[in-house]
Amino acid sequence: MEPTLYYQNKLKNLRQAIASFTQVMGVDLAKKDAFERDIYKNAAIQKFEYCIELYWKVAKLYLFHFKGIDESSPKGVLKAFYKESTMPDDVYESLLQMILHRNLLSHLYDPVQFETIFSCLKSHSSALLRALEAFSESPTKS
Predict the structure, then answer these.
(1) What CA–CA distance (Å, rounded) separates 142 from 131?
(2) Which residues touch 21 (CB under 8 Å, ≥6 apart)?
């Protein structure tokens, strides 16, 4: 697949993933029983992990195909993408926090940590929506 088309498909997937994550974050858990709350929390965490993973990988594609920058680590990619875009400082800082949260969830399961990170997901959802704007200036044709 041609690089621009591949990038556009991945960007479309990212937009859909963030929309789905935002939708899950809109569910009122107070109306759910304990079992349903647990399911929604786990679904939200998984969607969050998927979104931040996809975000940095789409940014990596953008950097490589359109800027000739080859970064490999999530933080390195986000830093380079931040420098190449008009992303606001607070959105960049939020993305770095999300990478930290993703790493904590993936490598160290702790119920207290899980709840702490879950309590940040609404703000992460909002930040991801704002972070999408950095791709609006991305090229659509090579």
Answers:
(1) 23
(2) 44, 47, 48, 50, 51, 125, 128
Mind giving me the DSSP string for 71-92? --SHHHHHHHHHHHS---HHHH
22: its two tokens = 């935002």
Contacts of 67 by beta carbon, 8 Å cutoff, 6+ apart: 80, 84
Q: How many CB atoms lie within 10 A of CB 73?
A: 11
Domains in the chain, CATH or no CATH each: 3-135 (1.20.120.330)
pTM of the entire predicted model:
0.92
| Per-residue model confidence as pLDDT tens digits over 74-108 | 999 999 999 999 899 999 999 999 999 999 998 77
As a whole number of angstroms, the distance between CA 53 and CA 96 comes to 12
Name residue 41's amino acid: K
